[in-house]
Design brief:
The complex is a heterodimer. Chain A is mainly alpha-helical. Chain A folds into three domains: 14-68, no CATH class; 70-155, Helix Hairpins, CATH 1.10.287; 159-277, Nop domain (Serum Albumin, Chain A, Domain 1, Orthogonal Bundle), CATH 1.10.246.90. Helices cover 73% and strands 0% of the residues of chain A. Chain A is built from 13 helices and no strands. Chain A has helices at residues 14-23, 32-38, 45-103, 110-118, 125-158, 160-166, 168-178, 181-185, 189-194, 198-205, 221-224, 228-251, 258-276. In chain A, helix 3 crosses helix 4 (110-118), helix 5 packs across helix 7 and helix 6 packs antiparallel against helix 12. The radius of gyration of chain A is 27 Å and the shape is flat. The N and C termini of chain A lie far apart (79 Å). By secondary structure, chain B is of the alpha/beta class. Chain B has one domain: Rossmann fold (3-Layer(aba) Sandwich). Chain B has a seven-stranded mixed β-sheet, sandwiched between helices. In chain B, strands 1-2-4-3 form a four-stranded antiparallel β-sheet. The termini of chain B are far apart. The chains are: A mainly alpha, B alpha/beta. The A-B interface holds A 2-5, 21, 24-33, 49-50, 52-53, 56-57, 59-61, 63-64, 67-68, 71, 157, 160, 252-255 and B 82, 89-91, 93-98, 100-101, 104-110, 117-118, 120-126, 147-148. Bound molecules: S-adenosylmethionine. Residues 42-43, 66-68, 71-72, 86-89, 92, 112-114, 132-135 of chain B line the site of S-adenosylmethionine (SAM).
């Protein structure tokens, strides 16, 4: 017959017990509580269940953390490639427009023009090359869109609180810029505030520029949509809450909607100030 | 139909609702230590509320498949004995873990209910399998987990039609699922869970003797 999860374990060794819960297998269940008592692993049923609970909680918690860690790396790849696809599509769309413009005075510009050309089936060999290039551009743009949907699905699982506050794409970019959720969770809010503004920050450190007030979080409505004089305060407030959200997501993973409520109130007060000045 | 011991109808804002007694788990209303068990948020709650003869008496050993964040299983652990809760998504497991921290008889397992060999070394034979996995192949999951039930055991399952086939009419989807279940179970009762849960079928069954 097969062994229960407790076979060969010391009763106090929760770590080994968790490993055995996660890695063990059996074809059929058995009266494990009675067998464990018989084997001397537990004194009685009550103490068996206490040990079982400690072991299952530790195992599920470790497995969940591992799973999420793996997911945050997928999210980082996805958002980076998403941005690369956008850049490549825009760059190539420009080439398409230049080339197309040399053939047709009415040629349009940008992705819309590429989309238009992609649907055409010219017979001229040069126009065929331009149309084919336009199709690559459209493909890249569609891939970017699929990646965005993937990011939107994955970000709330990897970082529910950060995503609720920042939106899935900004949340994913912050995680990517920091090099992972664990790394982001360890950053002070001042660093979160200027993530993505590294060039400006180094210029400032060299003494050739003022210190940057915000990095990528500038794309957030709470910074962009706040009057210029209050933007620094808004960026500080937002970065502070995002840093906390990243920590909650990394260390506990529990949803804390009150973080958003607090941020909303704080931004409300900051924007009121601007009315007063 | 009688409710299991530990489940009562209590008055919440003037309405009689199901409730169990235990530590609060997810922000549900509590009156005199009794936690509201909202049938609109729980298929098992809807089955008990709707008068299904689940055979539950209270104190049973339970294997719960598809525990998600632990809404329903928190109530089950209040009235049942040892309760094993299987969930395979990492995110809801976080909430399930905080529910388990307050309940000594709740054992969370992050694994796949389609692969009982990954938890049969932990789960003992149980009195009841409760299933709410909302995934394709729900009858298969119930059949795979039959090994945990003795001849007097009960399967209480909620089958979600859309998980099997989002384009087909629910009625034939349910027929197929019940027919498949009947290859290993004797189906005792079925009923739609409308209006609280659209396109869900509640099923109570017991293992067919003789087979296996
Ligand atoms: C409808 S929800 C369950 C809600 C829960 N029973 C309640 O009432 O609180 C379905 C859950 O089943 C889980 N699930 C789906 N397929 C599964 C499988 N093969 N093994 C384990 N869990 C699964 C999903 O991750 C999801 O959390």
């Amino acid at each position: 017959m097969t062994d229960g999860w407790f076979a060969g374990l010391e009763p106090g060794d929760t770590e080994a017990a968790a490993a055995s819960i996660r890695e063990g297998t059996a074809e059929e269940p058995a009266d494990w509580p009675a067998l464990a008592v018989q084997a001397g692993f537990a004194e009685d049923e009550a103490s068996y269940y206490r040990l079982l609970r400690a072991a299952t909680v530790a195992a599920a918690s470790a497995a969940a953390t591992e799973r999420e860690r793996a997911d945050d790396r997928q999210l980082v790849h996805a958002v980076r490639v998403m941005d690369d696809c956008r850049e490549a599509a825009n760059g190539l769309a420009e080439r398409v427009a230049e080339w197309g413009g040399s053939r047709d005075a009415d040629a349009g510009a940008g992705l819309d023009y590429a989309r238009e050309l992609a649907d055409s089936e010219p017979s001229d060999p040069v126009d065929r090359r331009v149309a084919s290039l336009a199709r690559r551009v459209v493909d890249l743009d569609e891939e970017r869109e699929r990646l965005r949907r993937f990011v939107e699905r994955t970000a709330p699982e990897v970082a529910p609180n950060l995503t609720a506050m920042a939106g899935p794409v900004l949340a994913a970019r912050l995680i990517a810029l920091a090099g992972g959720l664990a790394a982001l969770a360890k950053k002070p809010s001042g660093t979160v505030q200027v993530l993505g503004a590294e060039d400006a920050l180094f210029a400032h450190l060299r003494g050739s520029a003022p210190s940057p007030k915000h990095g990528i979080i500038y794309t957030h409505e709470y910074v962009r949509g706040t009057a210029r004089e209050q933007r620094g305060s808004a960026a500080r407030a937002l970065a502070g809450k995002l840093a906390i959200a990243a920590r909650v997501d990394h260390y506990s993973g529990e949803r804390k909607p009150e973080l958003e409520t607090e941020l909303d109130a704080r931004i409300g007060r900051i924007r009121e100030r601007e009315g007063g000045t | 139909m009688t409710l299991p011991e530990g489940v009562e109808r209590r008055s919440f804002e003037g309405r009689e609702r199901l409730a169990t007694s235990g530590p609060p788990a997810y922000g549900e209303p509590v009156v005199d230590g009794w936690r509201l068990w909202d049938a609109g948020r729980s298929k098992l709650g809807a089955m008990l509320d709707g008068g299904f003869d689940t055979g539950l008496r209270g104190g049973e050993t339970v294997l719960y498949l598809g525990a998600a964040a632990g809404t329903t299983v928190s109530h089950v652990a209040d009235f049942a004995g040892p309760t094993y809760a299987v969930e395979f998504a990492a995110r809801p497991m976080r909430d399930l873990l905080s529910v388990a921290r307050d309940r000594e008889n709740l054992f969370p397992l992050l694994t796949d209910a389609r692969r009982p060999e990954t938890y049969a070394h932990v789960v003992e034979p149980v009195d009841v399998v409760i299933q709410d996995v909302a995934t394709r192949g729900q009858a298969r999951v119930a059949l795979e987990n039959r090994r945990f039930l003795g001849t007097d055991g009960r399967l209480i399952a909620a089958i979600k039609a859309r998980s099997e086939d989002a384009t087909r009419d629910p009625a034939p989807v349910f027929e197929d699922a019940v027919a498949e279940l009947e290859t290993g179970y004797e189906v005792l009762e079925t009923g739609r869970l409308e209006p609280s849960h659209a396109d869900h079928l509640g099923v109570v069954a017991r293992p067919e003797d003789g087979t296996f």
